[in-house]
Amino acid sequence: MSSNRFLLLLLFAVTGIFAQQKLTVETLYDGSFRPQGMAELQALKKTNQYTVLNYDEGTGSIQIDLYDFASLKKTATLFDTKSYSRLPMVQSYSFDASENLILMACNKESIYRHSFTADYYVYDIAKKQLQKVGDKAIQEPTFSPDGKKVAFVQDNNLYVYDLATKATTAITTDGKKNEIINGITDWVYEEEFAFVRAFDWSTDSKNIAFIRFDESKVPEFSMSIFGTSLYPTIEKIKYPKAGESNSVVSLHLYNVSSKSSKNVDLSQYKDFLR
Fold this sequence. Notes:
seven-stranded antiparallel beta sheet; five-stranded antiparallel beta sheet; 11% helix
């Protein structure tokens, strides 16, 4: 069968299906013709199972449900928001290396193409305990390999949160909008290289390597932001046009035990973009 004939038959079939339904303005917007989707799926590494973020219309709650790959049947619910009435809607989640802890994102607010802030919570599956990471919205929280800590960025500074003591330690303090960025990329790196998180844990959870962006000499670009108010606001971002200065980038290493940082000398390393 030719491809054109197949497409024609498919069109007739789809037309026949929708011809049986009454098309109204309401059905165009109420989701009647919206394809069924899946919010979030995570394949587990330690078992032959996967998890899905599901919405229960009956209770209005969000669940992280566990399924078996072999049978495709649900075997358990790992987390349910109906037990935590004050928790905002969960929009995404990830596991630590042991797959005993779940990091959940709520209230996401976009920044640029890939970056965003969100309220994050860690849920201990075995203990059934929930705790918030950070006192407000943060960026790129990442479990340490041993699952004992979470590193994250807030207001251009890098922090470590201890899950046992619930203490937050500042790794950097010089972060400032449109000047210094620690642990996440500037706009250029995010846009051109499609990544945001610019820090990572060592495999033994003892150190954190992070990149620092000094964009203080990068020219500013002003944009009018039209929101809900009568007049627009002006947003200024660091935007280097052709021939202008880019951020000055440096690499640093933080020791979690001593709480000290040191610069990594890259003066002899030439195989990277500046």
